[in-house]
Model the fold of this input.
Amino acid sequence: MGNCIALTERDLFMSQSGADALQPKNRAALESWGFVLHSVELDEIEKAGGSLRCMVAEIF
Done:
């Protein structure tokens, strides 16, 4: 479905370009599984080959 990450049990984050590319059936499937979809503009990061997942670090 694309490059995304769940930051909580319900909140799924992806780039705006990733969200724009989601097919309606895939968006509906994610939402039916209880996810709330969030998107973030990452144009400059993506130009360099990065993604939202590259920007997230887990803190223990």
About this structure: Residues 4-55 form one domain.
